[in-house]
Amino acid sequence: MVDPTLAEMGKNLNEAMKMLEDNQRKAEEENEKKYTRKDIPGPLQGSGQDMVSILQLVQNLMHGDEEEESMQSYRLQNVGEQGHMALLGHSLAAYISVLDRERLRKLTTRILSDTTLWLCRLFRFENGSAYFHEDDREGLLKVCRLVIHSHYEDYTAEGFNVLYSKQPMIYISSAARAGLGQSLCNQLGLPLSCMCRVPCNTMFGSQHQMDVAFLDRLIKEDIESGKLPILLVANAGTPGAGHTDKLGRLKELCEQHGMWLHVEGVNLATLALGYVSSSVLAATKCNSMTLTLGPWLGLPAVPAVTLYRHEDPSLSLAAGLTSSQAVEKLRALPLWLSLQYLGHDGIVERIKHASQLSQRLLENLKNQDFIKTSVEDELSSPVVVFRFSPELPHLDQLLRAGQGPMIIGNERYVCDTFNQWLGEQLAQLVPASGVDVVELEDEGTCVRFSPLMTSAVLGTEVQDVDQLVDCLKMKVPVLTCTLQLRDEFEQEVKRTVGLSYVEDISWPGLGVVRYEGQNEDKQEEKEVEKITGALLRKLNELESDLSFSLGPEFGGEKNCIYIGMVTEDLDVAELVETIAATGREIEENSRLLENMTEIVRKGIQEAQVQLQKANEERLLEEGLLRQIPVVGSVLNWFSPFHALPKGRTFDLTAGSLESTEPTYVSKVQGTGVTPPPTPTSGRAKQRFPGQKMFKRSLKGSDGLSETSSVSHTDDLGRGEPQPGISSAGQENPEPPEESAHLTKDMGEDSTGETVQTLGNDCTKSQGQESLR
């Protein structure tokens, strides 16, 4: 028998435990709900989204807002049918990866072997193997590891200790792409001392080709110091100018010292053509090469390919050039599909078309004045590099005067700035051409046209090249005139009082000017900034073809007016005088407003004192009885008191306080004193209808033609010219108006109490300055 009390206690305990467990379970569920609502990102909450919503999100991310699209121009890839085949390859690769292992192995082996064979035959690289990779530097990295494994047999077991005893040396050209050597050292775990940069030719041959004799001396010095040269990276088309190294001599040098020769560059694409230059054809004898077929053939998201020759498959596997994973072999599937779709004729046609485009541009540039080209072969060059190079007739005088190096350096920097502007303008006006700006060590800033890298993607045609040449012919005269007028503008600004010339050789335009003001005392920065902003607005309102701005967003001088490109018919003296006169006008108006504020304040105080005095005099004249409410009304009814209202008028022109009695007597306000008109620019000249400002008549022209607007952007938002602006940028006198008055009268209400009223009638006299 169980004690009833104990049984009751056990029952109550079970119920209590159940209640506690239920409460704890509810708390955990609530916490889980709170965690789901707060911490899970919005797109992942709930049971997922439908396919339409996800695709709509992707579309919005790709195209962005319509406003952003209208402000910026994007280079959209020309994805043709061959591009769709490449995109299909990525989808098929994901689908094929779920097949059973044996079937997947057979399929990937077939795809890899076919693609390797086709590429070796197309680019004349016999008996080679292929490694497909996403990053175009990854192939060279794997080749370096292969070479290290080949030269150091115990590298797999001992690692760094083997390299420490005999340091490996890798040689790259100084014209190679930036950061290549450092990237290789970081990935291989080697010190930067293992990387040697070989300079280019300085006296003989192309200045973008590797100096073979200097390389030979470097290799011999490294061998004497106990180092081991293992690899040389050469270029068949340097990243900047597109020049090809002397691959034949480099191959002989590598065989002499037992080194591996790797070649990369855009000119390797021409190996697929029927005729190949001997300098590029020598690349077929190298040990490895990297091909970037995506931009060459217009194939989106296809991998780069590194072709190499090596007999030991185990070392290739150790270096990562081959893989036992079948899924990694599917990288070749997009190329496998695209190459079959294009065929040999389609591949050759695209590469040949790009070569013809560069040749057409090169032929047009030969007859262009002030344009200097930097190409390796005048007859056939896949990459065309050119720059604006003005003639400097005063260069000999500067050299004889001993000022040559500094002046030449400045003019070189100015030319680089102008070429930067030229490249940006051409890329904006002809986006299908694919031109870009490149920095070369010897030539400086240049414009590069590399159709092998851009034409298949952008769909560049012959008419695009012709349009590029036409735009270049329009821009070169503008660059020449602007460069010639910069010195005249500088001298004119230095002769003008109130202006200072700011030297900014990084600005592509006529020059930079700052308005200093008429006061000798240094003005506050806020006041100068305010005057400069107002001056910029006034200049942009003028009917001219010039562009005025505050300069670049970053790195520019403060409180300055930057003037853009100009044409040969610019009247520099009129421009400078207009800037000075407009600045003086703005400064005087600002000072007039400050002075007027003080005068008005003092005038009001004086008027209050005089009106208070007049009020006391009126009380004495009316008497005490008239001030009593009831008695005063009766007295005024029996014996009205007539007195003229006494007030004060404040003339803004004269700055004087006068009585209003003549106004009430004659019922007409006085006109006050007429101030002299605002002085205008002394060079204000009569312009013909339709003629823009700052234009001078040229010989053989009637002075009525309008020149095209030259600015840093195509559409420079300018407001319509404000009324009252003369040809020199000054304000014409305003229409005559009445003089300004501040009237304060004394009056009496119906109860007999004295009431003061302030009449604020502020108008302007004839020819008076407007207050802004």
UniProtKB/TrEMBL annotation:
Its cofactor is pyridoxal 5'-phosphate. Residues 597-624 form a coiled coil. Residues 23-45, 662-772 are annotated as: Disordered. Residues 410-483 form the PDXDC1/PDXD2 second domain. Residues 23-40, 738-747 have a biased composition (Basic and acidic residues). Keywords: Coiled coil, Decarboxylase, Lyase, Pyridoxal phosphate. Gene3D superfamilies: Type I PLP-dependent aspartate aminotransferase-like (Major domain) (3.40.640.10). GO terms for molecular function: carboxy-lyase activity; pyridoxal phosphate binding. GO terms for biological process: carboxylic acid metabolic process. Pfam families: PDXDC1-like_cen, PDXDC1-like_cen2, Pyridoxal_deC. It comes from the Eukaryota. Residues 752-772 have a biased composition (Polar residues). InterPro entries: GrpII_AminoAcid_Decarb, PDXDC1-like_2nd, PDXDC1-like_3rd, PyrdxlP-dep_de-COase, PyrdxlP-dep_Trfase, PyrdxlP-dep_Trfase_major. Residues 489-591 form the PDXDC1-like third domain. Belongs to the group II decarboxylase family. This is Pyridoxal-dependent decarboxylase domain-containing protein 1.
